[in-house]
Design a protein that fits this description.
12 strands, 2 domains, alpha/beta, 13 helices, Leucine Aminopeptidase, subunit E, domain 1, eight-stranded mixed β-sheet
Length: 379
């Protein structure tokens, strides 16, 4: 007998399933945007009355770098527009005013096929039974790219048009689907939720998957696999502009450890920030789970990141070394399965004023793997 649950009556920002398509023909300007920041009601009205203007949004966002309250409110407006697009199955591109349709059946199928990996036990059992038989020795290319994860995934799709779309790692919130997206939080997970239909896969607030029998929190050594998610907005750096057409990617939500404590120790004759051994073992097990989920779903390429650094540049060296050990020496032989393993690390991750090429987190990862740091122009 199939286990079912009651269809959810929950809404996001008060938006109902089947809500009418907003009939807006004029883009908001900075004045209208500024006036809507005071309350959620005003923000909803803005989304339903005006077309989204990425240039006005970006202008006000850039002016508000020292005002976190305004920055969060601006992100909430983006999130409202994203939710509205997924409930009306369409959005309008700025300037061209072209209406782009989202495939209703494809979106709902994506949600219903979302998988919850409760632990890594299945991978351990499979390896004991089958090992890595039949895999080709050392074929994966390791790339470190100073760019956004979505942009890197799209570039990999251009390079390998006959492959399945890459799986993209999401640094997931352990306890909250989508993290602090309702509050306009600014981490990687919230930005991806603002840019795509991923919220429905993680939270399913509108009950697209009536047979779902799992819920948060995320397991320590497992995660959530969301296939064929529609990505239809550009990055925060580009004002969250609506894309001319959606890009479909799969995502793996796994939660990094928070508030990782590192100790200054001598490592091969140099002082380095090192994570305690017990935490290292657990972190590497998480990394194995991420790659095993991608492998289990048949992805030939994955887009990873500085998982767990959380803006702490001092941890980047050790984190990069852990990824290298997992990829190159794990008994799961990951480098023998994937064609491309890419680390997408935006160039502002180091958090200091040193030259990006020498001291960024991306450069640290490139050094650890012995590869040149790339960008999208020279991929």
């Amino acid at each position: 007998m199939t286990k079912t649950r009651r269809r959810s009556t929950k809404t996001v920002f008060g938006f109902e399933a089947g809500m009418p398509v907003p009939r807006a023909y004029t883009m908001f300007g900075t004045d209208e945007l500024q006036a809507a920041l005071g309350s959620e009601q005003d923000q909803v009205k803005l989304v339903q009355t005006y077309l989204f203007d990425p240039e006005s949004w970006q202008e006000l966002f850039n002016e508000s770098q020292k005002n976190p309250v305004i920055k969060r409110a601006l992100r909430v407006i983006v999130q409202m527009g994203t939710v509205a697009a997924t409930l009306t199955y369409q959005y309008t591109v700025a300037f061209t005013q072209e209406e782009v349709l989202l495939d209703r059946k494809r979106l709902q199928k994506s949600v219903s096929r979302t998988l919850y990996y409760a632990s890594d036990d299945c991978f351990v059992s499979e390896f004991r039974n089958n090992g890595s038989a039949g895999w080709t020795e050392g074929k994966a290319a390791i790339r470190v790219v100073s760019a956004d994860a979505i942009d890197v995934a799209e570039k990999l799709m251009e390079l390998n048009p006959n492959h399945r779309a890459p799986a993209v790692l999401v640094f997931g919130s352990k306890g909250s689907p989508g993290g602090g997206y309702k509050r306009g939080a600014g981490s990687q997970e919230e930005e991806l939720v603002r840019r795509s239909s991923l919220l429905h896969n993680l939270e399913d607030p509108y009950g697209y998957d009536p047979a779902r029998d799992w819920s948060y929190p995320l397991p320590e050594f497992g995660g959530v696999y969301s296939p064929d998610v529609a990505v239809f907005r550009d990055s925060e750096r580009n004002g969250y502009a609506f894309r001319d057409e959606p890009l479909y990617l799969s995502f793996i939500n796994v939660s990094p450890y928070s508030n990782v404590q590192a100790n200054e120790v001598q490592h091969y004759g140099r002082w380095q920030s090192r994570i305690p051994d017990e935490t290292v073992r657990s972190y590497k097990r998480k990394m194995e789970a991420i790659l095993n989920i991608a492998r289990d779903q048949g992805h030939q390429s994955v887009v990873l990141g500085a998982f767990g650094c959380a803006g702490q540049a001092t941890l980047a060296v050790h984190m990069a070394q852990m990824w290298k050990e997992v990829i190159e020496t794990s008994p799961y032989a990951f480098r023998e399965f994937f064609d491309d393993i890419a680390f997408a690390i935006p160039d502002d991750a180091s958090g200091d004023d040193s030259p990006i090429e020498e001291n960024s987190t991306a450069a640290t990862f490139a050094t650890a793997f012995g590869v040149e740091m790339e960008n999208l122009d020279f991929f």
